[in-house]
């Protein structure tokens, strides 16, 4: 499989959103929520941005994380050595972001929405630094945030990563796969509403099958089997 970033509609919308946050007017909110089903490319797009621009950092929240741990991950991503005390960590972040503004991309926010203290930490960082914060979460993140009225007011935009259109699936496969897929095979993947992660797995296995059996094209039959195996 070829290794490249595919410029999907979702990715284009992410770029627009990020630029809007960076270029917003003085009193316009600078926080946004990016959400969508698993495997549609949310994290990959954020990481691609961070790899290509030095104006952003990406932090992945985990299930067992505490607010202090999150702060210390942010400090590390900002290139500093984390202090021991929570208040010092917070001040480290504020100082660093005021001196050298960076967009905070906080991934898997679903883990932190339900837990005490996190949303407040992000809100405090935002209020002190006005640095753009992009929170990335699952399909339900949007609904879950309803409970934090003060926080929601600070959100400039909500961007949903949508499932792929037929044309897009065709584009990914053409750009990433070393073996061709028949139009029926592509249509099948579209109808099954595959995410990017599933497509990548299917391409991976399709290439192995094509190589082993000397095939020039993956047809509907093969793709149906690959889809079912991966389910
Ligand atoms: N624009 C892209 N170009 C190339 N590959 C991509 C792109 N977007 C996603 N991928 C591939 O699809 C995989 C799944 O995408 P990603 O992990 O970003 O999904 P996600 O929306 O963050 O899912 P989750 O909600 O489960 O975290 C990536 O590991 C990567 O291999
Ligand atoms: Mg992700």
Kindly describe this structure.
With 231 residues, the protein is of the alpha/beta class. The chain folds into two domains: 9-161, 3-Layer(aba) Sandwich (Rossmann fold); 166-230, Helicase, Ruva Protein, domain 3. It has helices at residues 9-22, 42-52, 67-77, 86-99, 110-113, 118-129, 141-144, 149-152, 166-176, 183-191, 196-213, 220-230; strands spanning 31-36, 56-60, 103-107, 133-137, 155-161, 180-181, 217-218. The chain has a five-stranded parallel sheet, sandwiched between helices. It has a two-stranded parallel ribbon with strand order 6-7. Helix 1 packs across helix 2, helix 4 (86-99) packs parallel to helix 6 (118-129) and helix 9 crosses helix 10. The longest helix is centred in the C-terminal third of the chain and has 18 residues, at 196-213. The radius of gyration is 20 Å and the shape is elongated. The mean pLDDT is 91. Residues 5-6, 8, 11, 38-45, 138, 196-197, 200 line the site of adenosine-5'-triphosphate.
């Amino acid at each position: 499989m070829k290794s490249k970033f595919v410029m999907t509609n979702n990715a284009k919308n992410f770029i627009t959103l990020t630029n809007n946050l960076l270029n917003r007017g003085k009193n316009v909110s600078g926080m946004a929520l990016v959400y969508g089903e698993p495997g549609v490319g949310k994290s990959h797009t954020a990481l691609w941005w961070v790899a290509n621009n030095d104006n952003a950092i990406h932090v992945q929240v985990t299930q067992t994380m505490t607010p202090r741990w999150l702060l210390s991950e942010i400090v590390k991503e900002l290139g500093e050595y984390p202090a021991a005390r929570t208040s010092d960590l917070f001040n480290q972040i504020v100082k660093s972001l005021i001196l050298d503004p960076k967009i905070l991309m906080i991934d898997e926010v679903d883990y932190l929405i339900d837990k005490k203290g996190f949303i407040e930490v992000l809100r405090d960082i935002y209020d002190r630094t006005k640095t753009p914060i992009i929170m990335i979460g699952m399909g339900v993140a949007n609904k879950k945030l309803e409970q934090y009225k003060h926080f929601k007011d600070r959100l400039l935009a909500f961007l949903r990563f949508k499932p792929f259109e037929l044309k897009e699936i065709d584009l990914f496969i053409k750009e990433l796969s070393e073996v061709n897929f028949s139009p029926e095979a592509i249509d099948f993947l579209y109808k099954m509403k595959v995410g990017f992660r599933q497509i990548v797995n299917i391409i991976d296995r399709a290439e192995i099958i094509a190589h082993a059996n000397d095939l020039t094209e993956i047809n509907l039959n093969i793709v149906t089997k690959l889809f079912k195996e991966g389910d």
